[in-house]
Design a protein that fits this description.
Order of helices and strands: HEEEEHEHEHEEHEEHH
Bound molecules: zinc ion
CATH architecture: 3-Layer(aba) Sandwich
Strand content: 15-25%
Number of domains: 1
CATH topology: L-fuculose-1-phosphate Aldolase
Helix content: 40-55%
Radius of gyration: 18 Å
CATH superfamily: Class II aldolase/adducin N-terminal domain
Distance between the termini: 34 Å
Low-confidence stretches: none
CATH class: Alpha Beta
Structural class: alpha+beta
Number of strands: 10
Largest sheet: 8 strands, mixed
């Protein structure tokens, strides 16, 4: 089997993301660059706890032709490929439905990133308009939004995508995006609480405590 270490690394990353609550069920996928022409991607709809290196797919980046892997590649392969083709320095792309940042993706507002998170995330977090999961329409929308300085993207009504020069950098971007999302939602709750009735205030306090309980880092 070729690229054994990198394919095992994809499995390890999936288990870690699942443990942190970023990958729930089979929702979430990863693309890892193997060399200038090849990538490894998670198999489609596979339980992370039964995934093995042999089921991780090896694809040609140029046309996504499958060269190895006992399962079909993730339906989001085209989405990840649009990032890796546009940015040769990127080694890893991760798509998740992580809880707090995905809540921000429902609001659909672009985020200006405070300076403490800019080294990992970039100056802003754009919103990619909604298109069905796995569609070429979604990858094409993504391809138009990808920017060299931006490592985190909200996917409207769906989830998020983060990327980095390697898997550690992409994982750090996921963590920083989740922390930023938690801080922004917390601010919104405080603003609403200032003008709320006592009953609404109680509900907002409960929402804030649920938000802070979701801390996974
Ligand atoms: Zn998804």
């Amino acid at each position: 089997m070729k690229y054994v270490n990198q394919r095992e690394h994809v499995v390890t990353l999936c288990l870690e993301l699942s443990r942190r609550g970023y990958f729930a069920g089979t929702g979430g996928n990863i693309m890892l660059r193997l060399d200038s022409e090849h990538v490894a991607v998670t198999p489609s709809a596979t339980d992370y706890h039964t995934m093995s290196a042999a089921t991780v797919c090896v694809l040609r980046l140029g046309d996504l032709h499958q060269l190895d892997g006992e399962a079909a590649p993730s339906v989001e392969s085209g989405l990840h490929a649009s990032v890796l083709r546009a940015r040769p320095e990127i080694g890893c792309s991760i798509h998740t439905h992580q809880p707090v940042a995905s809540a921000l993706a429902l609001l659909g507002d672009e985020i200006s990133v405070p300076s403490r998170w800019r080294p990992t995330l970039g100056p802003r977090i754009p919103v990619v308009g909604y298109a069905p999961s796995g569609s070429s329409w979604l990858s094409s929308k993504f391809g138009h939004t990808v920017h060299p300085d931006i490592n985190a993207y909200l996917m409207y009504n769906h989830g998020i995508l983060c990327c980095g020069r390697d898997s550690a950098a992409a994982m750090k971007a996921l963590d920083d995006l989740e922390a930023l999302a938690r801080s922004l939602l917390d601010q919104r709750i405080s603003q609403h609480a200032a003008t709320a009735t006592p009953a609404q205030g109680q509900a907002l306090l409960r929402a804030r405590s649920a938000l802070n309980d979701r801390s996974t880092s």
